[in-house]
Every structure is written in structure tokens, then in C-alpha cells.
């Protein structure tokens, strides 16, 4: 039977995760530490004997699977001889899928339709309660909060997609640079230095507006350095293999700094040199569309499409939806209506008919490699 290839599918269900861990001899490290709303197991792995404690969790949003794959890659790396110094310096507590119900359905929320990353104070959900219990009992020195972001984000006010984004969350409404934030910023600087070699100018920084209901903000307010990781888009890479690799490299880079006690060598000013994310991008830009119903007219317009990701059977479908056109927006894929063969014979009798036919045609294209 063919082994599971995590690069083949953005959908990463709890069943697939369990099977992958078993196939790769990682499941023996697993403990079930709780259950979800619908009774699915929430797993953890506790690895290392060192005094520096690092808590990592992923997929608290069930449709953000890329960083779970990166976390599993790091998990496997810890079983190699090269990682022995990390295990003697650090103890890692990893929760690879905090929201298994959302992961099964490919939804951001849990089974009660609650965003777990807005439940840090109320703790209304069993998954949120579990994470808090682990935080209190493990008492980590550092927290890695692993997420995924949409294709709309650019690295700064550019048209370069933010393949990776980071945030050192605020600890209060004044966005004070506390000691915990400083350490988180230094770790981000270290990781950025590493991955700029591979994805130059494609690293972004999230806005640091304070929200105590967000887990990262809450943990930072408790003086625990917490880093938000966001796996984003790379050109033509909807499978997010590049983002997976870059998050993996970032985790290793940060852990090496923690293990080697070199944190203070990274200046916090460099954190603010990372460009803040903008929402400049959409998936497809269709230009030079003749929207006239008259054969004697040549009224050309540009249309912008954004893909909605939805679970369909055992995979994720990317469904194009038309977005409002703005000169500030840029398509990750740009198609000339007049030159692309699939649009040449397109017939429409009304504006509604035009939009419908354009959307259907976009959905038929292999947008990974639009010619």
C-alpha cells in the first residue's frame, strides 16, 4: 500500500495524521491528552530532557494544515543524530492538531463553531481548556503558535506574496515592548535571517494590535515569549510545499538559538525591518475582458477572482469567487482574456451570464500552472 504523502493534499484529517505518524515510526511517542467536542483524540509528543521548555501547537484552526506538516517534519528531525544537542538542551511539548474536529471538516472553527484563537480568556471549549492546562502544567519558557494564512497577504506594500509571516504578539493595549516580546522578536529575527536566503523579500510581519482573547497575546501577557508563525503562499505553490519547508527551517533556527543561549545577539530593531503584511493580492487577475454585448464595441475590463477553499470528499477544492476590482490589487496569476485560448469562444448574453461563464472557466483551469 502506498505511503501517505503530505504534500499531495491540503486536507489533513486526524485519521491521516495518525496513519502518517504510524508509517514514519513517530506514533510511539504520542500520548492522548484530551478529546475534542466530537470526541476525537488530541495528541501530544513530549521529547527531550533539557531545561529550556518549548511548547508548540498547530491547527487550532482546522483549515491551516501546512504548519502541522512542518511541526511533524521537526518532530522527525528530533529523531536524527543531528538534533541530539537540541534534545539535551531543550524539552519540547508538541500538539500537532489542537482542533481535530475542524481539521476533519477543513474549517477554521471547532465543532461548536468557535474560533479557538479567540477563546483564550473565556475558555468555553474543551480544546481551549486543554491548551491552557498544558500551558499551566508544563510552564514553558517559549511558545510557538503555528498557523496558516490566506493568499491575499503580501510582504509589505508590494505584490510579493508573504510566504511566511511572523508576529511577536503584544502583551497589552499599549503594545509595550516587554521582556517576553523582546525575546520573541529576537527569535523571529534569527528565523528571518535564515529563510531570507531561500525566499528573499517574501517574509512579512503581522499587525500587533492587542486582543487578550487571542492565545498568543494572552500567553505573552503572562510574560511567556510567544511567536506566531503563518505559512503563506509561494508562486504556483497551492500545495504549500515551500511554506512548509520555510516554517520547518524557522522552527529549527529558533530552537538552535534557544539551545545555544545566543538569543541576546539578535537585535530587536531588526524585527521592525520585516515589512508589515498588506492585503494586496488575489488569486487570479483576468484582464482585457470584452464586456460589451455589442459586436461593434470593445469595452475592456479587469476582473479579480479569489479562491474559496472547501472540503470535497477527501480533498480540498479551490472555488473561484469574483472580488471587487481595485488598482491596488494584483493577481497571483494574470490572464489576458484576449490571448488565452479557453476564453476565445466564450459567449454571453448578459452581465450575469458573463460573470457566470468567467467563473466557470476559471474553475476549469489548472491554476497551479496557468499557461
Structure description:
With 371 residues, the chain is an alpha/beta fold. The longest helix is centred in the C-terminal third of the chain and has 20 residues, at 241-260. An eight-stranded mixed sheet has the order 1-2-4-3-5-9-7-8, with helices on both faces. The protein folds into two domains: 6-278, Zn peptidases (Aminopeptidase, 3-Layer(aba) Sandwich), CATH 3.40.630.10; 281-369, no CATH class. The chain has nine helices and 14 strands.
Radius of gyration: 22 Å
Strand-residue proportion:
15-25%
What is the CATH top level name of the largest domain?
Alpha Beta
Annotation, overall tally of beta strands: 14
Strand order of the largest sheet: 1-2-4-3-5-9-7-8
- End-to-end Cα distance, whole Å, is 35 Å
* Number of distinct helices: 9
The named CATH superfamily of the largest domain: Zn peptidases
Mean pLDDT, all residues: 93
The helix content is 25-40%
Q: State the CATH topology of the largest domain.
A: Aminopeptidase
The helix/strand order is HEEEHHEHHEEEHEHEHEEEEEH
How many structurally independent domains?
2
Any low-confidence stretches, pLDDT <50, length ≥5? Answer: none
Distinctive features:
371 residues, alpha/beta, Aminopeptidase, 2 domains, 8-stranded mixed sheet, 4-stranded mixed sheet, 9 helices, 14 strands, 28% helix, 24% strand
Helix-strand layout with pairing:
Layout: H1 14-23, E1 30-35, E2 41-47, E3 52-58, H2 66-77, H3 84-89, E4 90-95, H4 100-105, H5 126-138, E5 142-148, E6 154-155, E7 164-167, H6 179-195, E8 203-205, H7 215-221, E9 226-231, H8 241-260, E10 277-278, E11 281-290, E12 300-312, E13 315-323, E14 330-336, H9 351-364
Parallel strand pairs: 3-4, 3-5, 5-9, 7-8, 11-14
Antiparallel strand pairs: 1-2, 2-4, 6-10, 7-9, 11-12, 12-13
Helix pairs in contact: 2-8, 6-8
Amino acid at each position: 500500500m502506498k505511503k501517505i504523502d503530505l504534500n499531495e493534499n491540503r486536507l489533513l484529517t486526524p485519521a491521516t495524521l495518525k496513519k502518517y505518524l504510524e508509517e514514519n515510526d513517530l506514533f510511539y511517542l504520542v500520548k492522548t491528552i484530551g478529546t475534542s467536542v466530537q470526541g476525537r483524540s488530541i495528541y501530544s509528543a513530549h521529547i527531550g530532557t533539557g531545561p529550556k521548555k518549548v511548547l508548540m501547537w498547530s491547527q487550532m484552526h482546522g483549515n491551516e494544515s501546512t504548519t502541522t506538516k512542518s511541526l511533524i517534519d521537526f518532530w522527525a528531525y528530533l529523531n536524527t543524530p543531528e538534533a541530539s544537542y537540541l534534545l539535551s538542551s531543550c524539552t519540547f511539548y508538541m500538539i500537532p492538531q489542537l482542533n481535530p474536529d475542524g481539521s476533519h471538516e477543513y474549517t477554521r472553527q471547532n465543532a461548536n463553531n468557535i474560533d479557538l484563537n479567540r477563546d483564550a480568556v473565556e475558555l468555553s471549549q474543551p480544546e481551549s481548556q486543554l491548551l491552557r492546562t498544558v500551558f499551566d502544567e508544563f510552564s514553558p519558557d517559549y511558545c510557538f503558535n503555528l498557523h496558516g494564512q490566506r493568499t491575499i497577504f503580501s510582504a509589505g506594500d508590494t505584490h510579493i506574496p508573504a510566504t511566511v509571516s511572523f508576529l511577536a504578539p503584544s502583551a497589552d493595549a499599549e503594545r509595550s515592548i516587554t521582556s517576553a516580546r523582546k525575546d520573541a522578536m529576537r527569535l523571529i529575527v534569527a528565523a528571518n535571517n535564515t529563510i531570507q536566503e531561500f525566499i528573499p523579500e517574501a517574509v512579512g510581519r503581522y499587525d500587533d494590535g492587542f486582543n487578550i482573547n487571542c492565545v498568543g497575546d494572552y500567553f505573552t501577557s503572562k510574560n511567556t515569549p510567544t511567536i506566531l508563525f503563518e505559512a503563506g503562499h509561494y508562486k504556483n505553490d497551492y500545495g504549500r510545499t515551500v511554506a512548509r519547508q520555510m516554517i520547518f527551517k524557522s522552527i529549527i533556527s529558533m530552537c538552535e538559538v534557544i539551545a545555544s543561549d545566543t538569543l541576546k545577539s539578535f537585535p530587536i530593531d531588526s524585527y521592525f525591518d520585516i515589512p508589515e503584511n498588506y492585503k494586496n493580492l488575489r488569486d487570479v487577475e483576468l484582464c482585457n475582458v470584452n464586456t460589451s454585448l455589442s459586436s461593434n464595441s470593445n469595452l475592456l475590463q479587469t476582473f479579480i477572482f479569489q479562491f474559496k477553499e472547501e472540503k470535497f470528499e477527501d480533498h480540498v477544492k479551490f472555488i473561484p469567487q469574483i472580488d471587487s476590482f481595485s488598482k491596488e490589487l494584483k493577481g497571483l496569476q494574470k490572464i489576458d482574456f484576449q490571448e488565452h485560448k479557453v476564453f476565445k469562444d466564450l459567449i454571453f448574453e448578459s452581465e450575469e451570464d458573463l460573470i457566470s461563464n468567467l467563473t466557470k472557466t476559471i474553475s476549469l483551469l489548472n491554476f497551479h500552472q496557468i499557461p
